[in-house]
Amino acid sequence: MPRIHATALVDPKAELAAGVEVGAYSILGPDVKVGADTVIGPHVVLTGRTSLGARNHLFQFTSIGDIPQDRKYAGEPTTTTIGDDNVFREFTTVNAGTAQDRGDTLIGNGNLFLAYTHVAHDCVVGNWTVFSNNAQLAGHVHIGDWVVMGAYSGVHQFCRVGAHAMIAAGAIVLQDVPPFVMASGYPATPRGINTEGLRRRGFKAEEILAIRRAYKALYREGRDVEDARVALVTASEAVPALVALVDFLAVPGRGIIR
Questions:
Q1: Is 70 a catalytic residue?
Q2: What is the CATH number of domain 198-249?
């Protein structure tokens, strides 16, 4: 059975799985679904058509599922979907999607959102990412698995950040950041590959070397993006880890950081 503090306001239509805890003064709306063993701290607001998976932990003053901060929003029945094992620290905000895009804001599994982070409407966040304090996403942003967002970093709307990329503290991302790349500055520019992060995640030395060579092909050899991508297609046949980079470059997006 869920454990609900006496001062919490939980709509009778909300669906709470076994083991859910709801702290003092938290508010859960009628269309909220919460998975097993999720801990909802005090003063949390879950509203809108919001679904959370299992074993999430929401600290005080988290707000998830409220309407998008978008003038075009006209009350459409959009959603917010959260996976399993995520941590949302104090004052994290996640807004619902819009009818003009996918209609859902999606967060995967095992992510860590530190205090005052923000995920705007229609964003897609993968798995095992880390958002340091005050990292902010504008609308329609896609963040790949294992991305690290530094403190006070921001991503412009419609940008993509590829898997295993690292965005430095205070960086402002105005174009797409390819997988494996470290970026810093305003506007953010490439600063090499995320070697230490790749090592921690079990990438082999030969894979890291191939990724470093791919970075040189993309940024150091005077090639345009399509020429570099074609060269990397061949390289990816021998090193499957490069497929993620090849696939990322195949999508035009906003253009990659240079």
A1: no
A2: 1.20.1180.10
Respond yes or no: is residue 156 known to be catalytic: no
pLDDT tens for the 258 residues of the chain, in order? 899 999 999 999 999 999 999 999 999 999 999 999 999 999 999 999 999 999 999 999 999 999 999 999 999 999 999 999 999 999 999 999 999 999 999 999 999 999 999 999 999 999 999 999 999 999 999 999 999 999 999 999 999 999 999 999 999 999 999 999 999 999 999 999 999 999 999 999 999 999 999 999 999 988 899 989 998 999 999 999 999 999 999 998 899 999
Number of Cβ within 10 Å of residue 86's Cβ equals: 26
Which residue is catalytic, options 122, 126, 144, 154?
122
- How many helices (H) and strands (E) are present in the chain, helices listed first? 4, 28
Listed residue (92, 88, 195, 184) closest to 136, CA to CA: 92
The pTM (predicted TM-score) of the whole model is 0.96
- Domain limits of the chain? 3-140, 198-249
